[in-house]
Amino acid sequence: MAVKNLVRGNVFIDGAWILPLIQGGKGVGATNGRSAGAWARENTGGTIAGTGAAIGYDENGREISYPHIGRSRRERHEELVAWSIEGGILQAGIAYEASRGKGRIRMNFLKMAGGSMRIMRGVLEGTRLAGGGNMINAVTMGAGLPAEEDAQICADEGVYLDPIVSSAVALKVLLKRTFRNWPDRYSDVIGAVVYEDPWLAGGHNGITSREDPDKPEAPYDRVKELRRIMNENKMENVAIIMAGGVWYLRDWEHWLGNRDIGPIAFQFGTRDLLTRECPVTEEWKLLLLSMNEGDVALNQFSPTGFYSSAYKNSMIKELCQRSERQVPFGRKCDSSMSKPVEGCGVPNNSYCVTQQDKLKVDAWIAEGFNIPLRTPDNTLIFVTREAAREIKAYLTDCVGCLSTCKLSSWSQSSEQKYTTGKRPDPRFHCIRKRLVEAIQGRDLDKQLIFAGHNAYKAKSDPFYRDENGHVFIPTVKQLVERLMTGN
């Protein structure tokens, strides 16, 4: 079969027959109305980042930050919800106009994001069409399983909900808990099921305690099992969207027309970043084109508590080193914790460590890591004075961007008095600040750069070089045409 005919037909997703190509959703402005509309215009699935949707851009085309003036975290959280709704409505309108009535427009929300349900409801209400229907055809939701209330909001608005799962077990839980009121008509609510491979996808990953992060499992067997569960629940005609590790469709040819897999489409997250319509900066795109195999790795530094896949820049490496500079401690010296921590600006005998750990602590202090910070696990980490000030600023400036945050101890629950009740954990990064500053192009070596594990393939992909060897960034139209060939 000729490579040029690899994509042979359309697949039914979110109420329409479209090409089996889907734009990866991402978050915090890494996709917007312009890029999602460009994908939809090619009769594919375009996906807007509903978490942290941009409210505007500066004279250089870079996303502007939400203007927070609230003095308390709760006040800033309410501002975040309001700005997110405004941004979501704005970007949905841009995508709707750009799509020219073609393809599907989806909006991606992170379940762990602060106020996600309120934001989703506000955006869907604000994007209703006068003659009926909605500018948005479907909602996708990951970083946590959607709740029944999320499904009901989508059903009320006539919008599909495309859940993101990383295993057949997660789908079983979802069908039993979230979609229990639709047992005979899942297809009325679910427009597709996104399988996000926990070892290959960029961003937050659904690795559970049943799985080993260091032992990847083949996606084919996991998706085959996912399809089996779907067939048992009258979902034979609901498409699966394979997300994570998809670079060349030629590598997935055996999935097409495969009865064990069923209706299938493929999601492109990292390759979408390398398009002209993508709002990330040129610096970010050039960084992707320079990555080597192994430069993207799983880590546990997200304050959500999930694993995530990100580029191993100096920020990620510093967090790794920070966790390594960690020892248990006691508040009083005793026979086991017999040595006081000295020479770091704390009162004598405030912290005591073992004799063996005292040698390590003294060495860290001598190297300039002379500020001890307590963790919720009764350990101390040692950081520089500059890092300590930065961590304090994160806590002071917290806007409640997550439903619960390990770094700031924020909780959006009023029943918990807007706190998790746990000590802030300085071993994590501020995801909002790091992602916003990445999208704005501020020193990418110190920001959070989510990417899929196959990002390194961009460096050797001839598509991204012109005939003179210069960098070539395609339009979405050019990328879609290329993807359909299998390359």
Percent of residues in beta strands: 5-15%
- Biggest sheet record: 8 strands, parallel
Q: Class of the largest domain, according to the CATH hierarchy?
A: Alpha Beta
Strand order of the largest sheet: 3-11-10-8-7-6-5-4
Estimated helix fraction: 25-40%
Task: Provide the gyration radius in Å.
Answer: 23 Å
E-strand count: 18
Shape: globular
Q: Could you state the CATH homologous superfamily of the largest domain?
A: Aldolase class I
Textual characterization of the structure:
This protein has 487 residues and is of the alpha/beta class. It has 14 helices and 18 strands. The mean pLDDT is 93. Strands 3-11-10-8-7-6-5-4 form an eight-stranded parallel sheet. It has a three-stranded antiparallel sheet with strand order 9-13-12, with no helix packed on it.
Mind sketching the topology for me?
Layout: E1 11-13, E2 16-18, E3 21-23, H1 33-41, E4 45-49, H2 73-99, E5 104-110, H3 116-126, E6 138-142, H4 148-157, E7 160-165, H5 168-177, E8 193-196, E9 203-205, H6 219-232, E10 240-243, E11 264-268, H7 270-273, H8 282-288, E12 296-299, E13 307-311, H9 314-324, E14 326-328, E15 339-340, E16 352-353, H10 355-366, E17 371-374, E18 379-383, H11 385-397, H12 431-439, H13 457-460, H14 476-484
Parallel strand pairs: 3-11, 4-5, 5-6, 6-7, 7-8, 8-10, 10-11
Antiparallel strand pairs: 1-2, 9-13, 12-13, 14-18, 15-16, 17-18
